Amino acid sequence: MSLPLEKAEAARHSSLAAAVDAAITSALDDKRLVGAVVLVARDGEIVHRRAAGLADRENDVAMREDTIFRLASITKPIVTIAAMRLIEQARIGLDDAVTRWLPDFRPRLPDGGEATIRIRHLLTHTSGLGYRFSEEDGGPYISAGVSDGLDQPGLPLAENLRRIASAPLRFAPGSDWQYSVALDVLGGVIEAETGLPLGEAVAGLVTRPLGLVDTAFSVRDRNRLAAAYMNASQEPELMGEEAEVTALMGSIRFAPNRIFDPASYHSGGAGMAGTAGDILAILETIRKGGAPLLSSETVRMMMTDQAGGHRQQYEPGSGFGFGWSVITDPVEAGVPFPAGTLKWGGVYGHSWFIDPVNGLTVVALTNTTLEGMWGKFTVDLREAIYAAL
Questions:
Q1: DSSP SS3 for 62
Q2: What is the pLDDT of residue 44?
Q3: Which residues are catalytic?
């Protein structure tokens, strides 16, 4: 690289850093966030990193880059990668019926008829399952006491699967799209196939091969765990033993101390905790083609819309691959991302994206529900990055 090109690249990185910092500082100054860790990688190199604000406001603990967060749905891509490794090993098949591993898991169609849920339906949220938080009061999941994986400390997986199966499916598997507890069911399949608790299976299949030690279904160092906050009128409010947050899709119930109870089932959809650095390492593994975890062919499949176009009727311009949403039409989606960008988040306050066209991987973990997942901060952050590019 010639000197002028090096200077131009340095200037771009400096511009990007300033823009990202401005978005973070604005969210903190406006008291929309309590704290955040943001990592921006370009072509495999971290070009900006910042830990800002407080991990624990009440005890005046500063945010650090190695702060551990409750990951919520950032668990999903990690568990999906574990499942895809088992698929590559021919231990699980995409078109296998879930009852091969969970013979009693037989939720019925709305008319009472039988249905066959396949592994690919779980991976793409086309199974007909739902989430408790997306129901009206008195809905079947609420009536059955289903856990969305964020609440009810001490609940065993077998009992939650029984409750889920007792409620009717929302549609015939493969015919529609609905965000759901499917990854919790997939966690049960992984446990049955490996004979291990989900946490041990995920460690062996994903985190340990990458040398990661902080991302798990338990917290290795409680002193590094961020406190959990939720949006409130003046400033974010600390969650108590239990909390309820109203979102666009319904009322979400939290029990932040669930992760400390060893009897809590390992929720494949929401149960892990981890660091921004670990999440970046996992996502970069995907962006670079999958090694040492997966083949490039498998990763290409995961990065392609696998939901039969069903998700696009709910979120135009966006499909769903295995583990994440996929931007299919940036104009229709109204986003600056190019087509093929992968993204998702976590309801405890997180967002991430992989832009393979520009070699970008961005992880933004915060301790503030819902601002850190859906709020102005996420829009400001992505707009700042693409303006700087």
A1: strand
A2: 97
A3: 73
